[in-house]
């Protein structure tokens, strides 16, 4: 594990963007990248979009979402893909031919299809204050899981309700690449900002591997880079 501590979110965003751009340019053949949605990478994607837009140097890069929260509305594309389109795919003018949507209809063949195209070269991850990453929330998945459909019941359903303005649109499940699938990625980059992430980062960096904090398994990955600002790094 490599830990990079930076001053603030602005510095983290540029550094992460430059790292991802460098990785994409490290190959001239197909590069498979999985990226996170959420607020933490927003500035990273803004920086990347300005560099990538209208450049053919990145035409070999293919993108995958690693989780998805669908909706009971069949015309809704999903929370993750909606956010990624707004944050990055549309501003960077990424061709739809290079965007591969993981959803409820194809999750069972996701790992097989990734293997057929060479596997994921890199994945950009965030981390929740409860230690979750992707859709791997405490109690939702097991360390040995590949890409799975998670039943959203009880407290787990409450966790996704905030994504919807109408409770009737809340689905009974979500899709995520499980720990086993994530660990098969060649390079992992995890970013975190803010004091509220400090405890989760401690469990990732210094704590034991514990399913109570799902991201703790990531410390076993052979190529993990953790980029944190001063607040998120408070406890390490």
UniProtKB/TrEMBL annotation:
Pfam families, A to Z: Glucosamine_iso (PF01182)
Residue ranges annotated for the Glucosamine/galactosamine-6-phosphate isomerase domain, each copy included: 25-219
InterPro entries given in the database record: Glc/Gal-6P_isomerase (IPR006148), GlcN6P_deaminase-like (IPR052960), NagB/RpiA_transferase-like (IPR037171)
Secretion signal span: none
Protein's GO biological process: carbohydrate metabolic process
Protein name as catalogued: Putative glucosamine-6-phosphate deaminase
Gene source species: Lactobacillus melliventris
């Amino acid at each position: 594990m490599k830990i990079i501590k930076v001053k603030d979110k602005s510095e983290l965003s540029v550094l992460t963007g430059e790292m991802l751009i460098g990785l994409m340019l490290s190959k001239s053949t197909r590069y498979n990248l999985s990226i996170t949605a959420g607020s933490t990478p927003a500035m990273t994607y803004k920086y990347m979009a300005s560099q990538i837009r209208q450049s053919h140097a990145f035409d070999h890069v293919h993108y995958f979402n690693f989780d998805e929260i669908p909706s009971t509305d069949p015309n809704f594309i999903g929370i993750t893909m909606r956010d990624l389109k707004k944050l990055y795919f549309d501003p960077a003018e990424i061709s739809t031919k290079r965007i591969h949507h993981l959803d409820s209809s194809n999750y069972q063949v996701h790992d097989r299809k990734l293997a057929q195209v060479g596997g994921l070269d890199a994945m950009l991850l965030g981390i929740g204050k409860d230690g979750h990453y992707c859709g791997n929330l405490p109690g939702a998945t097991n360390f040995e899981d590949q890409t799975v459909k998670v039943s959203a019941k009880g407290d787990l359903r409450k966790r996704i309700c905030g994504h919807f303005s109408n409770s009737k649109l809340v689905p009974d499940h979500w899709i995520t690449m499980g720990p086993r699938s994530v660990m098969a990625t060649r390079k992992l980059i995890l970013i975190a900002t803010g004091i509220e992430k400090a405890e989760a980062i401690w469990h990732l960096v210094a704590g034991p591997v514990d399913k109570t904090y799902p991201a703790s398994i990531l410390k076993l990955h052979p190529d993990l880079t953790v980029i944190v600002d001063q607040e998120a790094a408070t406890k390490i």
